[in-house]
């Protein structure tokens, strides 16, 4: 008589990267530092590359930069919806894949007008990343949000110093391909960090009962005034990213020297921001 064959339960193998129980602030800071360094590389040289290398007028250059900003705003809005109502972790990976793919395409195809198209894709990924990384920060910084986001502001400027220094130096030596290759390395590193450390469980707002949601959507006059002041400040600051670099180069400054100017500017911001924070 044949003996019955026992049903064997499938053996579940542990994932290659075990799911972390908690996301530490250190990894958000690290991801934000690398992300800002990667995005800051393109700030000083975009208008310079469009005008001096691709021979586009300042008007066309301004249109490209304007659409890049619009794309970033749309991406930020979409990323906020995805974080609240879909899957934060997968949304975060999508943002990094888009930025990585845009950098890859700009590495291989950087003539006019395809350069502008891939720049839009890169800006979309960066716009998503900025919102999502701050959303992750809001999730873990409930106890001390002031300290956490003060550190984030400092890290943003440190990333700007690193990105502008190395980005302009490499662009001066190896042109656009060298700069984008460094960007590809940065985004690959960010993907690895995200896959290993950002797979925490965050319940979308749609799954939380309305009576248990802690949402405060009252926009005070002070908050609106801060937003208006920030917008006006950035309107003046855009000279750095638009006409300043071609103008400086036309005065005899090398691209590498212009990058040092960005670096000095970032260091001044870091020092005075830290001082002002302590004073206030």
CATH fold group? Growth Hormone, Chain: A
Instruction: Indicate the low-confidence ranges by residue numbers.
Output: none
Would you tell me the structural class of the helices and strands?
mainly alpha
Query: Any idea what the shape is?
Result: globular
Rounded to an integer in angstroms, the radius of gyration calculated over CA atoms is 22 Å
CATH top level class name: Mainly Alpha
- Overall pLDDT: 83
Order of helices and strands: HHHHHHHHH
Kindly estimate the percentage of residues that lie in beta strands according to DSSP. under 5%
Number of strands: 0
* Count of alpha and pi helical runs: 9
Major sheet: size, sense and barrel closure?
A: none
Termini, distance in Å? 87 Å
Number of domains: 1
Annotated CATH homologous superfamily: MFS general substrate transporter like domains
Under the CATH scheme, the architecture is Up-down Bundle
Helicity level: over 70%
């Amino acid at each position: 008589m044949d003996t019955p064959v026992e049903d064997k339960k499938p053996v579940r193998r542990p994932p290659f990267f075990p799911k972390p129980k908690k996301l530490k602030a250190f990894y958000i800071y690290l991801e934000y530092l690398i992300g800002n360094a990667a995005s800051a590389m393109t700030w000083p040289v975009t208008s310079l590359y469009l005008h001096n290398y691709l021979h586009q007028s300042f008007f066309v250059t301004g249109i490209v930069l304007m659409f890049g900003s619009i794309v970033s705003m749309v991406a930020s809005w979409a990323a906020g919806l995805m974080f609240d109502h879909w899957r934060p972790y997968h949304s975060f990976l999508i943002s990094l894949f888009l930025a990585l793919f845009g950098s890859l395409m700009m590495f291989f195809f950087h003539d006019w007008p395809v350069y502008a198209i891939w720049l839009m894709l890169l800006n979309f990924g960066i716009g998503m990343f900025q919102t999502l990384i701050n959303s992750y920060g809001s999730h873990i910084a409930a106890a001390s949000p002031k300290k956490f986001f003060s550190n984030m502001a400092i890290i943003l400027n440190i990333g700007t110093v690193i990105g502008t220094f190395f980005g302009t130096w490499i662009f001066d030596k190896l042109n656009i391909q060298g700069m984008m290759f460094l960007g590809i390395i940065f985004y690959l590193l960010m993907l690895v960090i995200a896959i290993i450390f950002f797979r925490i469980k965050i319940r979308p707002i749609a799954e939380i009962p309305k009576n248990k949601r802690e949402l405060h959507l009252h926009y005070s006059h002070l908050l609106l005034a801060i937003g208006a002041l920030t917008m006006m400040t950035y309107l003046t600051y855009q000279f750095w990213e638009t006409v300043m670099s071609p103008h400086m180069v036309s005065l005899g400054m090398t691209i590498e020297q212009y990058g040092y100017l960005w670096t000095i500017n970032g260091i001044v911001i870091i020092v005075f921001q830290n001082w002002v924070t302590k004073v206030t």
